[in-house]
Amino acid sequence: MSAAASYHHGNLRAELLGAAERALGEVGADGLSLRALARELGVSHAAPAKHFADRRALLDALAVEGFARLSAGFRVIAAARATPVRDRLRALVASYLAFAQENPALLALMFAHKTESDVEASADVLVAGREAMALTVALVAEGQSAGEIVEGDPARIATVAFATVHGIATLGSGGLLDGEPTGGVADAALALLWEGIAARG
Q1: Distance CA 77, CA 172 (A)
Q2: Which residue, of 5, 97, 119, 142, has the greatest Cβ tally within 10 A?
Q3: Separation CA 199–CA 201 (nearest Å)
Q4: Quick check: helix, strand or coil at residue 67?
Q5: pLDDT tens-digit series, residues 141-157
Q6: List of residues 6+ apart from 70 with CB closer than 8 A
Q7: Within a 10 A sphere around the Cβ of 61, how many other Cβ atoms?
Q8: Domain 1-52 carries which CATH code?
Q9: How far is CA 80 from the centre of its chain?
Q10: pLDDT for 187-197, tens place per residue?
Q11: Band (5; pLDDT cuts 50, 70, 90)
């Protein structure tokens, strides 16, 4: 089946998202154009409007898709309950770093408009963004229940961990770690973090 024919079966939205993600790494969010994407896909300039009201709606959908992919990997790791919490946290870090390395432009877009106070923040993006954090919080809480992690607000502990890894990922993708491998810096950070949150005795 040709690409043009597949659009009649409702695939244009997915094709637009795929093309937009490819373009994101080349021209950035500001350079994305619905008209250009329509030309690339061989459809009319009006066709994308059936799925996305404007460029912002397309970018929001792309961010939601990015969070969905990130959370899907997190869910698989978090569900492996036979694995110690510390090892699953390490796996979460590795998963996040891999995602960041493979999708730097998408990751930047995902966090561009994701705060409650941002008037441009999409409700869908905010909801999608909370899931990855919620999975991390739940894993910390599980570690506390198992006696592996110190008592305290699991959301605060997860936020500190998430912020640390996100910062390392951002610096790594920008080549700002003075030649240090991103994974090595993350391992060192996780070791220090675990030393601080591991249950005593």
Answers
A1: 23
A2: 97
A3: 7
A4: helix
A5: 999 999 999 999 999 99
A6: 95, 96, 99, 110, 132
A7: 19
A8: 1.10.10
A9: 20
A10: 999 999 999 99
A11: very low
Domain boundaries, the chain: 1-52, 54-197
3-state helix, strand, coil in the chain (%, to 5): 75, 0, 25
CB 150 within 8 A of CB 197: yes
Pure H helices in 42-181: 55-78, 85-102, 104-110, 123-145, 154-173
Look-up of token digits 């949150």 = 197
With a pLDDT cut of 70, the percent of the chain lying above it is 91
Task: Tell me if 19 sits within 8 A of 36, measured CB to CB.
Answer: no
| Beta-bridge partner residues of 198 | 149
Distance CA 39, CA 32 (A): 12
Residue 113: what pLDDT?
66
- Domain 54-197 of CATH type 1.10.357.10: yes
Q: Contact, 29 vs 55, CB < 8 A? A: no
Amino acid at the residue 1: M
Structure-token pair, residue 59: 């970018």
**pLDDT per residue as tens digits for the range 153-182:** 999 999 999 999 999 999 998 889 999 999
Residue carrying structure tokens 């591991």 = 198
